[in-house]
Amino acid sequence: MLDSLASVDPVSVQIIQSNGASSSSSSSSSSSSSSMKALLISFEKFFSFLFSSFLKENIGNSFRLQVETKMVAEVSRTGRENQVYRHGRRQVVGCIPYKYRINKQSSSVDANLIEELEVLLISSQKGPAMLFPKGGWEQDETMEDAAERETLEEAGVVGKLESRLGTWRFKSKSLDIFHDSYMFPLFVTKQLDIWPEKDIRKRRWVTVAEARELCQNWWMKEALDVLVSRLQQLRPKKEEHETLCR
To answer: What pLDDT does residue 241 have?
Structure first.
């Protein structure tokens, strides 16, 4: 449409009279009027399309940000007065958020699993140390709900929560007490631009090898090993099923 509009110059439109004949003048005037009208309609449709596209994009982005802001505000919690304790030990839940990179050159599923896998680390509130999202399990929620909530609060991602990787007991760094930690895998389906702890944490997608090097908690590294082992066991079954269906 732009090419057709560019080829018409409304300033240069002229009414050509042939030998002063009135019939020719009338015909030319009518033709010119129709051409100008069609041209104006085309311009109107074109700019209307541009304006509506602009509104759709910007209003859509604004609405999305409003929804995300409201959502994270509703799930964010502070304080430990409602957290679960068992035998004097604080109950902690966390997630290993993960996804796969697209690797079209992969020839062996097992050999390339670790290369395809990425996990999400976040920075600690108290320093540059990197770890997986985790936090206290509260009395009015299930363990699974707490794991998803903590991951959204600290890392700003949501997805499919999978079965528990295991339970670990570790000693608090600040107090002479122990905590029980339950870790889950979370297959990430959406990464938010706004989340409760955006201003105090950094997040970073890394490979399994990088996570083992950067993560500061031994029990989180063990949970990562359990996840990798589980995924390696599941992938061959998926490949066999796909082969049988061909």
So the answer is: 41
pLDDT tens digits for range 108-127: 445 477 788 999 999 998 88
CB atoms within 10 A of CB 243: 8
Side chain identity at 113, as an amino acid letter? L
- Pairing relation of β-strands 117-123 and 89-100? antiparallel
One-letter amino acid at 121 equals L
Contacts of 148 (CB under 8 A, 6+ apart): 95, 158, 161, 186
Give per-residue pLDDT as tens, 82-97. 788 888 899 999 999 9
Q: What is the pTM of this model?
A: 0.64
Vertex 232, ends 143 and 208: CA angle to 5°? 75
> Nearest CA to 192 among 184, 179, 201?
201
Q: What is the 3-state secondary structure (H, E, C) of 166-205?
A: EEEEEECCCCCCEEEEEEEEEEEEEECCCCCCCCCCCEEE
Helices (H), the chain: 2-6, 22-75, 109-116, 143-155, 208-214, 218-244
